[in-house]
Amino acid sequence: MELLTPGSGLIIWQAIIFLALILILKKLAWKPIIQALKDREQDIEGSLLAAQQAKNEMEKLSSDNEKLMAEARMERDSMLKEAISTANKIKEDAKEETSSIAAKMIEDARASIENEKKAALTDVKNMVATLSLEITEKLVRKQLGEAGAQKELVEEYVKDLNLN
Amino acid sequence: MRVRTMIELSRNNTSKLLITSFLAVVFFFMNLSVLSAQDDHSADAQEEHGETEEFNPGETIVHHVLDDHIWHFFDGHYGTLYLPIIAYSSERGLEMFSSKNFYDDHHNLVEYKGYSLEHGLSLVDNHEASVLDLSITKNVLTLLIIAVILVWVFRAVANGYKRNAGKAPKGVQALFEPVIVYLRDEVVKPNIGDHYEKFFPYLLTLFFFILFGNIMGLIPGAANLSGNIAVTLVLALFTFVITNVSGNKGYWGHVFNPPGVPGWLKPLIILIEIIGVFTKPISLTIRLFVAITAGHIVMLSLISLAFIFGSIAVGGASSLIVLFISLIEVLVAFIQAYVFTLFSALYIGMATAKTEHH
């Protein structure tokens, strides 16, 4: 029966020592242990989170890079296209201008040739006229040198006038 | 690198296994020697009285399981530690003397200063006055030793966290960290909830005190501390007080105004709820006491078989069974510490639950 009767002395000792044990261990052991465990867990969690964030950022960066590349490629393509069309236009324009200039030059040349021709013809006419006059004068002077010739000529003129 | 650590690990495990089995064997033989010493000793005493009695296993076993004012290790002049008696009586005040005074040279009980030890166990005043026995008994001494060991071990664990801050745990810290984390994540947090931190230090102390007490009780010659009903009663009362002091409105509402119960049934339910408040610590007290004491009694009974039959063959057979039971007792030591802590956490959790679920 002693087995089932709690001894009062042991109850008192147990209560005192166990209470003291709780308080001592709480201060010396449990608080620092629990805190250290918590700190470490937070540390690990924070590190994992930071790693995940870094990974996400990397992904974002690489996708940004790709986007930039694609944009650059597109810009290059459009620039190329524009350059080609500009070049074509310049070529076309140049061709047009050249042909118009050439046409104009030909026209000018033709006109100046015409003018020269006219001027030359006029010169030739004038010269012919002058020459003919001179020849005529010489002829007239020679023929009119004889007295009978003058009279004959006047008579002829008068005859011509009458006839008219 | 990994292979090497694994080899070292397995080597460690092998050595641990060897140590464990060695301890179990030593434990067994020491139990035998303690018992046989006890037996021889009582036989001697009885012979001197002129009468020879049979070996009484029941008495021997109960004596081994109970508290004592002396600590008997082996026979001979130095084999017994006489512990101090501290007695308080209303008439004579506080008195302190060695328990050696109660024993004569032939280890027979004698009176001293008007006190005597009844059956060598309980201190009584010969003048029928009430006396409070505050002696440092075998159990009280064991209690002190366990307290010192606990403080020493867990201070070392706490220092480990300071020394290895930001690093992997090492040594004794690594040994106890999984246990502490397991208790927190699997026992305390699920049962109490987010406000568990207030009760966690108490529950940790409770678990490791019971565990160390149980394991100390398995050491041959050591006291059966955690199988003593006074000890388990005090532990249960701590849980009881903490549960009811921190019990919130919901808890008391559940006891005195059980929701969802028709009016005419209420008195009965309230009565049952009030009984329930008190059966919790009683069940805690008895569960631990019975589990540990029963284990000790089973082992001692099996060892006693050898002396009852006086045969080497029976002794050999019972040794093997005791070896097996000892290993089971190590398991029980852990299970009972776990169960006591689990139920304490459960009771505290029920009393402090923030929201009522219906």
Summarize the structure.
Chain A is 94% helix and 0% strand. Chain A has helices spanning 8-144, 147-163.
> In this structure, how is the largest beta sheet of chain A organized?
none
Average pLDDT confidence of chain A is 89
> Could you tell me the number of beta strands of chain B?
7
What is the H-and-E element order of chain A? HH
Query: What is the multimeric organization of the chains shown?
Result: heterodimer
Indicate the radius of gyration of chain B in whole angstroms: 25 Å
Note the run of SSEs of chain B as H and E: HHEEEEEEEHHHHHHH
Rg of chain A, Cα atoms, Å:
65 Å
Roughly how much helix do the residues of chain A carry, as a percent range? Answer: over 70%
Termini distance of chain B?
Answer: 56 Å
Distance between the termini of chain A: 194 Å
Please outline the major beta sheet of chain B: 3 strands, antiparallel
The number of distinct structural domains of chain B comes to: 2
Helix/strand class of chain B: mainly alpha
The secondary-structure class of chain A comes to mainly alpha
